[in-house]
Amino acid sequence: MPQMAPISWLTLFFIFSITLISFSIMNYFMISPEAPNPSEKKITSSSLNWKW
Question: For this UniProt entry, which segments traverse the membrane (predicted)?
Fold first, then answer.
């Protein structure tokens, strides 16, 4: 079985790196976050009474 030349290993590395980076970029920009509605924001605060 013949061994692969180092140049083909380098091209394989670049191809896989470029595909990984492109899929990561596409996955990052596909999700559009929704802005939170300020009228629905309810802050509930409960007071804690510590008894030592």
Answer: 7-31
